[in-house]
């Protein structure tokens, strides 16, 4: 299984067929299924409760994301050039870069903050509630600017 680090969990590592991973319990039953979608990995577990977060595009502008991606590539490239695995401090930098740093930036409330507008927040709330009881059961939800 994984363990929580910072404000996120480690990225998916495939163990098995391309694009899929499955964790098993002591009896060999599948407990967690992971498959890669178009953009993000999809984690599923029968009977599980999920926390889902969405963000608007301008909350993390493309130049900011590109600089973080460059930093990530640079860390990995350096280790590869030296023909060695990532060091513990490099792994820690990558974890911070893709969890704590992202969360801190999002918490600063940058961008247009469209969810502050009642009519926009109401439309999002309607979308969340649309399939409640049909495809899923909402226990709680929150819209933040």
Notes on the protein architecture:
By secondary structure, the chain is of the alpha+beta class. 35% of the residues lie in helices and 11% in strands. The protein has four helices and three strands; from the N terminus they run βββαααα. The chain has helices spanning 62-81, 88-97, 100-107, 118-130; strands spanning 20-24, 30-36, 41-44. It has a three-stranded antiparallel beta sheet, with no helix packed on it. β1 and β2 form a beta hairpin. The longest helix has 20 residues, at 62-81. The protein is flat and about 55 Å long. Mean pLDDT is 79; it is low at 1-18.
Order of strands in the sheet with most strands: 1-2-3
Structural class: alpha+beta
Helix fraction?
25-40%
Report the order of strands and helices: EEEHHHH
Cα-atom radius of gyration: 19 Å
Average pLDDT across residues? 79
Oligomeric grouping of the chains: single chain
Strand segment tally:
3
Shape: flat
Spatial separation of the terminal alpha carbons: 33 Å
- Helix count equals 4
- Which runs of at least 5 residues are low in confidence (pLDDT < 50)? 1-18
Main β-sheet description: 3 strands, antiparallel
The proportion of residues in beta strands is 5-15%
């Amino acid at each position: 299984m994984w363990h929580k680090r910072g404000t996120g969990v480690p990225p998916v590592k495939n163990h098995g067929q391309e694009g899929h991973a499955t964790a098993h319990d002591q009896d060999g039953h599948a407990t967690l299924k992971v498959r890669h979608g178009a953009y993000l990995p999809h984690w599923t577990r029968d009977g599980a409760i999920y926390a889902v977060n969405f963000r608007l595009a301008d909350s993390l502008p493309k130049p900011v994301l590109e600089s973080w991606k460059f930093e990530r590539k640079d860390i990995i490239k350096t280790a590869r050039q030296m023909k060695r695995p990532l060091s513990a401090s490099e792994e820690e930098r990558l974890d911070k870069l893709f969890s704590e740093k992202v969360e801190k930036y999002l918490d600063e409330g940058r961008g247009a903050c469209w969810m502050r507008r009642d009519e926009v927040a109401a439309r999002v709330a309607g979308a969340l509630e649309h399939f409640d009881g049909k495809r899923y059961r909402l226990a709680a939800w929150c819209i933040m600017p």
